[in-house]
């Protein structure tokens, strides 16, 4: 379940949305998961295009994850580590949400199920 917050107060031409989510468990029999982030209609109706997107995550266990952030129905950006700040989606239609995909790259000697807590901040232009 994604949680959101109120639009950020600031420059009159900008708008932002924050979301946070805990993933389903990643296990040795199911080594990948994805998290979908869709801003509420109230935000999407006020925004015209996407701006900078920031995402970060942490997880339990020792597994090493390979992750990427994708615009729903569009392009993806690979993450190098657990933090990403990108303008790769800037100018795209603000009605789209995001999907954060995770895959276990290495279990690092552990078989403990992994859950990922991710946060996203999407900046928009009105």
Molecular structure report:
With 126 residues, this protein is mainly beta. It has a single domain, classed as Sandwich (Jelly Rolls), CATH 2.60.120. The strands form 2 sheets. The chain has a 5-stranded antiparallel sheet, with no helix packed on it. It has a 4-stranded antiparallel sheet with strand order 3-8-5-6, with no helix packed on it.
Strand content range: over 45%
Helix content: under 10%
Distance between the termini: 26 Å
Pairing-aware structural class of the strands and helices? mainly beta
Indicate the low-confidence ranges by residue numbers. Answer: 1-12
* Tally of alpha and pi helices: 1
CATH homologous superfamily title: Galactose-binding domain-like
The tally of domains stands at: 1
Record the strand order, biggest sheet: 1-2-9-4-7
CATH architecture: Sandwich
- In angstroms, what is the radius of gyration? 15 Å
The outline comes out as: elongated
């Amino acid at each position: 379940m994604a949680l959101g917050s109120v639009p950020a107060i600031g420059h009159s031409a900008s708008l932002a949305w924050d979301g946070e989510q805990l993933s389903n468990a990643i296990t040795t029999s199911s080594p990948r998961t994805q998290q979908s982030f869709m801003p509420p209609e109230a935000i999407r109706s006020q925004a015209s295009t996407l701006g900078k997107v920031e995402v970060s995550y942490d997880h339990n266990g020792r597994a090493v994850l390979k992750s990427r952030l994708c615009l729903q129905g569009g392009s993806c950006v690979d993450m190098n580590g657990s933090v990403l700040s990108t303008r790769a989606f800037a100018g795209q239609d603000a009605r789209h949400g995001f999907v954060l995909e995770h895959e276990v790259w290495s279990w690092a000697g552990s078989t403990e199920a992994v859950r990922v807590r991710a946060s996203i901040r999407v900046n928009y232009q009105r």
